[in-house]
Automatic annotation (TrEMBL):
Keyword Protein transport: yes
Example of a GO cellular component annotation carried by this entry: cytosol
Keyword entries, A-Z: Bacterial flagellum biogenesis, Bacterial flagellum protein export, Protein transport, Transport
Protein name as catalogued: Flagellar assembly protein FliH
One Gene Ontology term from the biological process aspect of the record: protein transport
PANTHER family: FLAGELLAR ASSEMBLY PROTEIN FLIH, YOP PROTEINS TRANSLOCATION PROTEIN L
Function (record text): Needed for flagellar regrowth and assembly.
Pfam families: FliH
UniProt KW Cell wall biogenesis/degradation keyword: no
Family recorded in the similarity comment: Belongs to the FliH family.
Flagellar assembly protein FliH/Type III secretion system HrpE domain span: 86-212
Amino acid sequence: MSRVFRVSEPAGLKTLRFLDFDEQSEGQGGLGVFVEDEPAARALVVDTPGSGAPGAAITREQLEEARSAGYRQALDEGAAALVSAADALSQALNEVTRLRASLLKNSTEDMVQLVMAISEQVIGAEVATRPEFVFDTLKSALQNALKADEYEVRVHPDDLAQVVEHKPLFLAAVSGLRELRFGADAKISRGGCIVESRLGQVDATIDSRLDEIRSRLQEHLGAR
């Protein structure tokens, strides 16, 4: 805290002072030791904030230094606020991305389940209303099988009589085919079949066809 001395002249204010010995001996004032003097200038002390040394003044360099310090502090605080805002924005974007991926995954699974349910109903209706559905399935399986001169065919028990009845038709449909042997398999759904030869097997069951539809659908939706 520094002190600044200011001079003021209060109106009508008189000052008393001690008489020295010479003045007393000359008879001024008699027994009195104080006399009124002319109004004197008085020093007023005013405390002002500043340096610790009395009477020190704030220099231009100190002002510039204080201004620079405040400017740097404001920049640091602003930079910290920007970093905090950027972090919050990044977290929000990550959360949006995660939610979007979750929504897409859930919607994809729901769509696959819906399509598969519709496919099962359509195929089931076809098998129930068209007994010859198994004929188309068997022809396609024979054409996709590795070339051989004889095959063993397994179908659902309810389809066995029909395919045996149309055996000549199947033999004529495949070039070089000499023999077809048919058998019943309750594990195979109606409308489907399994064709086997010494070279391999063709699974043309309804379940395998539905699995293929599911796989292709998931692959297509996953690529979007």
